[in-house]
């Protein structure tokens, strides 16, 4: 009997062990930088519309504050608010040396990114999955000595608008899934952020770029089908922030700190200004209250806060990297330092409660319900959703799976690790059969497994005179 039992368990392991890995659901996270929640309202977007019919569409999502690229993307990857993950700005800076690095160079400052929070691709790899990232902010860094298994960082002078490159990158990612058996990939496109800045969110150029995004969404779905991934691959498409029109042509009184009576840059040890509508100041010892009181109320569209007095809902105060005085402007305005040097027609970085700052959200695949429109939610909640689909235990995070779980085909009582499983009894033994993934098909498969196991029992436990 023991020998037969051993043979039976070996048979179960051999027959049913491999398919679980083979059929495990995969996940592609895509960000189209600066795609505002309503960009599909003034442009025909047949592919995004079809994706909504085939999956899930959110009314909009709310990014974290500060609503700029690197901090917001790292919130999606970690499920942490910006004050908790520590990537507080696009620019790395050193208040002692007053050195600053622009966005691209900051991607390669490892300690800026690796300060305690792990992006999902590292968490997935530590739990036995394979992960990759293409151009996504944070890809260039290592985290506690680990990097994404497959990674590609864009070159310095990269053309983010090139549609041919978009298609090549889409096919490349699909080949990673098929040929290298990756489970998770994050993919980044730098538009429509670029045209939104240069021409404004209401421009014909922005509308044309949205058409390009839509064509790319259709191409990605076709590429997934071409690579035989349709039944396995879940796709989440979102963005880091929206975009707002900047008032120009003398229509408003611009915010220029050097013109404010009583304010002097000599009272500062360091400042981070001329970066859209946001700024941070480090006053010299003994100068904090003076600088604060001078700026507070100096312009009707300038908000000035001491770090510890920041509104709680912004989650942007409890980090040593955040400077003592925080500034932000109302939509339509930017903050200039010595004199105006910003000429973008569109900007982001405003309060995340402003509707212009809200990105879009779409999801499709075997894990997701079809033709479902859901209400707004914070992008910090995308992380636990992704962990659930991948069947991995999330790191400590600020999101909640309960916010998004109703999007899934099976909205059941699975644990945060996202395991699907059934148990069955065979000849007095209770055998638990588990599989990773979120689709109903997995549960059906494991139920079938139990039936086959009972059939196997009849084979392995036949009386000796009938063999």
Automatic annotation (TrEMBL):
InterPro entries: Alkaline_phosphatase_core_sf (IPR017850), Phosphodiest/P_Trfase (IPR002591). The keyword Signal applies. Residues 1-17 form the signal peptide. Coiled coil: none annotated. It holds the Pfam family Phosphodiest. The keyword rRNA-binding does not apply. It comes from the Eukaryota. Keywords: Signal. This is Ectonucleotide pyrophosphatase/phosphodiesterase 7. The lineage of its organism: Eukaryota, Metazoa, Chordata, Craniata, Vertebrata.
